[in-house]
Amino acid sequence: MAVDLLGGDQAPAVVVDGALRACQADPALQLLLVGPVEAADAILGALGPAERDRVRAVPAPTGLQSHDRDASSVESGVRTAVLAVAQGRADAVISAGNTGATVTSAALGLGRWPGVRRPPLAAVLPSAAGRLVLLDVGSSVDPDEATLAMHARLGAAYAAVVHRVAAPRVGLLTIGTERGKGDRLRRAAPAHLAALDLPGGGRYAGLIEGNDVVTGAPADVVVTDGFTGNVLLKGLETAYALVGPPQPDDIPPRAAVLLGVGGTVVVCHGAASGADIAAGIGFAADLHRRSAVPAIADLITGSDPHSPRGGS
C-alpha cells in the first residue's frame, strides 16, 4: 500500500499514526511510505523488527519536507504514490490530501477506463436497510447527463462486486420525486439513466430524496453530482458520529474509492483521524485482495483495467 504521508489537514502526524495502526492490525500488510524521511522514520522506530521488514520509505522529491505544506509540495507526494502503483511497486494508493490533485494524478498516472471521462469517488454509507453506495462525493462537481450515466454504471458494478448485491437498484438524488422537479441536470438525466444497460443485472429505480439515503429502501446505489454528494456525505457522517448510524454495528470506512482508473485509489477525508487513515488503508488492502477493481472494470469494459489507456 503506497501511503501519502503529507495528505490531510494534520499530516504527517495523523498519517503516521494511521499507518502505524494499520501495520500493527494486519500482519500481512506491507506499506510504502511516500513523503518526508523523518515522518517515515517515526513509524519505523515504533515497529518491532518483524514489522519493520514490512515497511519501506520512499524519500520525498527535492523540497518536500514535513514543514513544507505548499500546494506543489503536497501534491508531489500523491503523484509519487500513484507512480509507485503505475510501476508495479505498490498495489494501491491511499491519500487524505487534496481531492482534485489525487483524482488528476490517478487519471494521468494510471489511465482511465474507456468511456470514463470523469472518474467518480464512491463512498459507502450505512442505511436502515444495510449499506448504500453514494457517488460522486467530490470528484465531479458539475457533471452532465452522460457523466451521471457512466457513474450509474460504475456504481452498479461496485455494488455487485464489492457488496454482492444482486440486480442493484440505482436512484438519482433530487429534491422531489414528482416529474419535472429539480435543476436542469435532474430533469434531463432520468431519460439517460432509464435507457442504460446497467452491469450486474442492475436497474434504474427512479428519483429519490435525501431521506431515502438514510432508509436505503428504494435504492442500493445513489447517483448525484460531486458537490451535492460531498455535502450530503459530510452531513450524514457528522450526524452518525453524534447519534449513531441506522445500523449500529455497521460502520463503513470513512473513505471513498476512485472508480474508473487503472488501479486501486482510496481517498480519506482531509480531516481524517489516525483511526480513519488506518481504516482507509485496510479498505484499500481489502479491495486489492478481492481484486475488486479488475472485477468492476470487467463488468464495465470487459478488459484489463491496468492496460495503458486514456479517456477522452
Kindly describe this structure.
The chain is α/β, with parallel strands linked by helices and 312 residues long. It has two domains: 1-116 and 260-312, Rossmann fold (3-Layer(aba) Sandwich), CATH 3.40.50.10950; 118-253, 3-Layer(aba) Sandwich (Isopropylmalate Dehydrogenase). Helix content is 43%, strand content 17%. The chain has helices at residues 13-25, 37-46, 49-52, 71-86, 99-110, 145-162, 184-194, 210-215, 226-243, 274-289, 292-300, and strands at residues 2-4, 31-35, 55-59, 92-95, 121-127, 130-135, 169-173, 203-208, 221-223, 255-258, 264-268. An eleven-stranded mixed beta sheet has the order 3-2-1-4-11-10-5-6-9-7-8, with helices on both faces. Helix 6 packs across helix 7 and helix 6 packs across helix 11. The radius of gyration is 19 Å and the shape is globular. 52% of the residues are buried.
Please specify the SSE layout and strand pairing:
Blueprint: E1 2-4, H1 13-25, E2 31-35, H2 37-46, H3 49-52, E3 55-59, H4 71-86, E4 92-95, H5 99-110, E5 121-127, E6 130-135, H6 145-162, E7 169-173, H7 184-194, E8 203-208, H8 210-215, E9 221-223, H9 226-243, E10 255-258, E11 264-268, H10 274-289, H11 292-300
Parallel strand pairs: 1-2, 1-4, 2-3, 4-11, 6-9, 7-8, 7-9
Antiparallel strand pairs: 5-6, 5-10, 10-11
Helix pairs in contact: 1-2, 1-10, 4-5, 6-7, 6-11
